[in-house]
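Quick check before the chapter quiz. The format below is the same one you will see on the exam, so make sure you can read both the input and the output lines.
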Amino acid sequence: MTTTVSQHDEQIPAEEEFRPLAALVSRYREASLDLPRLCREPFFVALEVSAESLNQAANGLGDYLVKDAMKLRRSTASMEETDYGLWLRSELPRHAENGYSCYVDDSAFMANLWVGRYLEFMVEFFVQLESGCETSTSYLNAHQLTLQKHHNMFISMAFRAGALWLPNRVDIMASLGGGAPEAVVLSDMSDFVRIVRPIASCCLEINDELDSLMQAERAALKT
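Here is the expected output.
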């Protein structure tokens, strides 16, 4: 995966601080300047700011990221590693308790998997909003295109019920943009999609590598 970041991406205009979505984009930009490498601590902060900003825009929208960010923070992985991927790999011994058959639930391996999936959902959610869809429609369409393939029937039904409590498009745009004109908020959404889509892909590619490590450890136990 190859991603280039322009000089504009490296600069964070002061006015973005007053637009929650723009400030969030800046956090992800900082974490991903060296893609396909992610910087661990800036990425953690980006996820935590995401959860807060999304919950302010729509209560509950960031809850999934809250849980996964906490799992990342609690991980037994080596905090000496500043590279996110290398940091994750250092958690491998944690999964010996499961015989390397599956990820321990309260682990960075599991958190990374669901962070990648949820970021895919958020990217699609903003794509839908940017196209002019209402909030609830954007949410349901984004779920169908991303998370639904990973949810069982009961989790899927519970997740989709969340659309009933979302603010309308005008209100969520105002919240995400800090009252900025719609054209500005739409530009911020476009930036989010452009920057976060490859980050989501990076998380899922790392997950594939972690799964391969797990398979190798399982095979070693049988010899």
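If your answer matched, good. Confidence is low (pLDDT under 50) at residues 1-11.
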